[in-house]
Design a protein that fits this description.
The chain is an alpha+beta fold. The protein has a single domain (about 15-435), classed as Cytochrome p450 (Orthogonal Bundle). It has 15 helices and twelve strands. It has helices at about 15-25, 30-40, 55-65, 75-80, 95-105, 110-130, 140-155, 160-175, 190-215, 220-225, 235-265, 270-280, 295-305, 340, 385-405, and strands at about 40-45, 50-55, 70, 135, 315-320, 320-325, 325-330, 335, 405-410, 415-420, 425, 430-435. The strands form four sheets. A five-stranded mixed β-sheet has the order 1-2-8-5-3, with helices on both faces. It has a three-stranded antiparallel β-sheet with strand order 4-12-9. A hairpin with a 3-residue loop joins strand 1 (about 40-45) and strand 2. Helix 6 packs antiparallel against helix 7 (about 140-155), helix 9 (about 190-215) crosses helix 10 (about 220-225) and helix 11 crosses helix 13. The chain is globular. The termini are far apart. The relative contact order is 0.16.
Length: about 425
């Protein structure tokens, strides 16, 4: 909708910039909730930068679907991660984005995902076997696991020495993507990430040529053989760019969710028992062929994603003058929607502060009260391509973990999570593991 001259700008919710920035990082959800109570579901805020906040399921639908052609994801993400993940799907818009997405789709079809799941099962078991009974930080362990699985499934790399090199480079790139200081010399984490990306490109380019000559079932092999209806293929550079981006998106968000699951099931051990009993009923494993036999496990995963959405904010830039709920959003405005906030709104959820996986049961189906009240994977043309794989993979790994062990988190009341730019334990998440 075009802006009329009478349309006012949203109210400003900025108080004192340094304090707002501090609260944005230390109590993200609390900061948003306070401003929602004071200003409603549309307001301007100056935290990390100047942007307009749009809250609620209607706002999610408006930004992610209704006005998706008038809003740019690429312009919004470019200034945040553009140098490290240039060419990635999230940094593309319009026809270019649609074409790239079509060419990526074969790597996310059922048969391809089944291969990734099946090839990962042995690796999952090996990692769990090596976890110490007193694990000082389970997040580092699941991060190592998800990274190794991603390198194997996406690049087809399994040799220990090669894995070590790729793991180090990818870890450096991901660390740079969340680094606050990006200045030369003093911003060493970010500069190391830029160099790590260059090194990754040098390693991956020859592999792409090899996969074109000798097709494989890993993701790189799938992308090398992908052809759209017009006969177009991804170039070598495009394949490398997309793989580096997908690696970051898949590995980091999965590790975040797994650590949150450990936390929630330590808080609610009765759900550990229910997930373990369900996994036992699904025996004999491997269960990658049959993850749909784990409905309670899937409810646990979805409830964890509701309460601990890895990516809290979805930014966009307006490509033309727009209006939302009577407020003007001039061309070039930076806006953000917050599905993570919607996941705690009383309008859609019964006691949203509670951990209650059964809210996702067919009988209650609270996530269906509005098409966008539950949106941990985004929505519209920029929705996550790996949603199906993420849920199936998490079901398999959680089933395997609960079959192997139970756990508790000592001093669990002291555990805190960093929420921006991605949710991770703030200091550590110590876990005590016990044989099941």
């Amino acid at each position: 909708m075009s802006v009329t001259l009478s349309s006012p700008l949203p109210p400003s919710a900025t108080t004192f910039y340094p304090l707002d920035l501090y609260h944005f990082y230390t109590d993200f959800l609390g900061s948003i909730q306070q401003r929602y109570r004071e200003h409603g579901n549309v307001f301007r805020w100056y935290a990390l930068s100047k942007f307009t906040v749009l809250l609620g399921a209607e706002a999610n639908q408006w930004a992610l679907v209704t006005q998706q052609k008038s809003l740019s994801a690429a312009k919004a993400w470019q200034q945040l991660i553009g140098q490290l993940f240039q060419g990635g799907l999230m940094l593309r818009d319009g026809a270019d984005h649609r074409q790239q997405r079509r060419l990526l789709m074969p790597a996310f079809r059922q048969e391809a995902l089944q291969y990734y799941l099946t090839s990962s099962e042995a690796l999952i078991g090996q990692h769990i076997q090596q976890w110490p009974a007193r694990c000082p930080n389970i997040y580092t362990r699941v991060k190592e696991l998800t990274l190794e699985i991603a390198v194997q499934s996406f690049f087809g790399i399994s040799h220990p020495k090669e894995l070590q090199v790729y793991n180090r480079l990818i870890t450096d790139v991901v660390a740079g993507s969340i680094a606050f200081n990006r200045l030369p010399v003093v911003g060493r984490v970010y500069q190391r990430a830029v160099q790590a990306r260059r090194d990754l490109v040098k390693l991956l380019k020859p592999l792409v040529g090899e996969r074109r000559r000798h097709p494989t079932q890993d993701m790189m092999g799938q992308l090398c053989q992908s052809v759209d209806e017009e006969g177009r293929q991804l170039s070598d550079d495009e394949i490398v760019d997309q793989l580096i981006f997908i690696m970051m998106a898949a590995h980091d968000t999965t590790a975040s969710t797994l650590s949150s699951i450990f936390y929630e099931l330590a808080m609610h051990p009765e759900w550990q028992l229910r997930v373990r009993d369900e996994a036992r009923r699904a025996l004999p494993w491997p269960v990658a062929q049959r993850p749909d036999q784990l409905p309670l496990t899937l409810m646990v995963i979805r409830e964890t994603l509701r309460r601990h959405t890895p990516l809290k904010v979805l930014p966009r830039v307006t490509l033309e003058d727009l209006e939302f709920q009577g407020f003007a959003l001039p061309k070039g405005s930076h806006i953000s929607v917050f599905p993570s906030f919607t996941h705690y709104m009383d309008e859609y959820w019964t006691r949203p502060q509670d951990f209650d996986p059964l809210r996702f049961s067919e009988e209650r189906a609270e996530h269906k009260k509005h098409p966008f009240c539950y949106a941990p994977f985004g929505g519209g043309m920029h929705s996550c391509l790996g949603q199906f794989f993420a849920e199936k993979f998490l079901s398999v790994i959680l089933g395997k973990i609960t079959l192997k062990c139970s756990w508790r988190v000592p001093d669990i009341d002291r555990v805190r999570f960093q929420q921006i730019p991605i949710q991770v334990p703030r200091s550590s998440l110590p876990v005590h593991l016990y044989s099941s």
